[in-house]
Design goal:
Length: 313
């Protein structure tokens, strides 16, 4: 058997697509926010959730690109309920504006998919003066989640339907700096490593989900929070490394997932009944997966949460 087709306990595998892992599921009556939905696995996630009847709000930096994806979804699925709203995760002001505008729609939020991200960028600062990968991949999503939490809590309480927060992380979290999170060196350009900083931001995604899961359990809130590795995928994330990007788009087609496969784990964790009640876990290939020791460190998760609150305050 081709090893990528070997199914795990969930019944799905590396090669499963987003449509396959959600086949037969009905998301009617649910509302989801998907960040970074204008391209790659974010766009495919939005399409498949819409296909399953979920009302999807595409939170995108580029409204024109988002509108193009929305139009393609509506052309394929005329009954789809899809909206596009502007969100720039490098700007806390933009995050606050998005959250305010979304909450003013009086839509109950059932699913939040923190998908958007950048990878292995040169050293750059966000609009708020925070190292770009940490700002985009973690801080923006941390603030967004915080600002939408009351909505999600109310929705789960009123509807008696479990809310789900999905943080798209990466196996790249294992390549974080040796200390995990460089709390006092976030903006240290002299010791900057594009891969180490990417790993740090992806580790933060996991720690964030784990801390949320812990808090929800303590508060007896019917919301689960999980993180995942979508797989190595042919997308535009490697645009800052042109040589590697060119290799991945040629030889990589033999061993890398396409976007249909890449969005599978996100859609599985967001919608599948097998995940009901499962919180603070990490998934890969639509199955439970193991974390690094740093990613399981709850003291580090709490420290990151406190640090993040200070950053966004």
């Amino acid at each position: 058997m081709w090893p990528f087709s070997r199914k795990g306990a969930s019944g799905f595998s590396w090669s499963s697509t987003a449509e396959e892992v959600t086949e037969g599921l009905d998301g009617s009556g649910l509302t989801a926010v998907v960040t970074g939905a204008s391209s790659g696995i974010g766009a495919e996630t939005a399409r498949v959730l819409a296909l399953r009847g979920v009302r999807v709000v595409m939170a995108v930096r580029n409204l024109s690109s988002g509108a193009t994806v929305m139009d393609s979804i509506l052309k394929e699925i005329p009954s789809a309920n899809v909206d596009v709203m502007e969100l720039d995760l490098t700007s806390m002001a933009s995050v606050r504006k998005f959250a305010s505008e979304f909450n003013s729609l009086n839509l109950p939020l059932n699913i939040l998919i923190n998908n958007a991200g950048v990878m292995a960028t040169p050293f750059l600062l966000s609009q708020d003066g925070i190292e770009l990968q940490f700002a985009t991949n973690h801080v923006g999503h941390f603030l967004l989640t915080y600002l939408l939490l009351d909505n999600m809590k109310n929705a789960s309480h009123t509807s008696k339907i479990e809310g789900r927060i999905v943080n798209v992380s990466s196996e790249g979290h294992k390549f974080a700096y040796s200390e995990g999170i460089r709390f006092h060196k976030i903006n240290d350009q002299s010791g900057y490593s594009s891969i180490g900083a990417y790993g740090q931001s992806k580790l933060a995604n996991i720690l964030h989900a784990n801390e949320l899961a812990k808090c929800f359990k303590e508060e007896k809130v019917e919301i689960i929070a999980n993180s995942l590795h979508p797989g190595s995928i042919i997308t535009n994330l490697l645009r800052y490394h042109s040589f590697i990007d060119a290799i991945s788009r040629t030889l990589g087609k033999l061993v890398l997932k396409n976007v249909q496969q890449g969005a599978a784990t996100t859609c599985y964790v967001a919608l599948h009944p097998q995940v009901k009640g499962v919180s603070g876990r990490y998934f890969c290939d639509s199955n439970l997966a193991e974390l690094s020791s740093k990613a399981k460190d709850m003291d580090l998760a709490k420290k990151l949460s406190d640090f993040s609150v200070d950053l966004v305050s």
